[in-house]
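Contributing new records

If you add data, match the layout below exactly. Sequence lines come first and carry their own label; structure lines follow with theirs. Keep one chain per record. Anything else will be rejected by the validation script.
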Amino acid sequence: MSKSSGKSGGSHAGGGKMSASRASAIQSAGARNPVSRTAATGFASRAQSAGATNANGGSGSGKK
């Protein structure tokens, strides 16, 4: 039995900031499948917040 690294098996383009359109797609996916990890963990709302922050050119939570 192998141990999981804690990361999901999905792939992504990586590294960039969350776009508003990508955040919307994530939120829609969570709404379509309410028992998914996306919906259960609240990731959809965090993605939406990050997308809105990045679309407005904001710096987010102020972390440096």
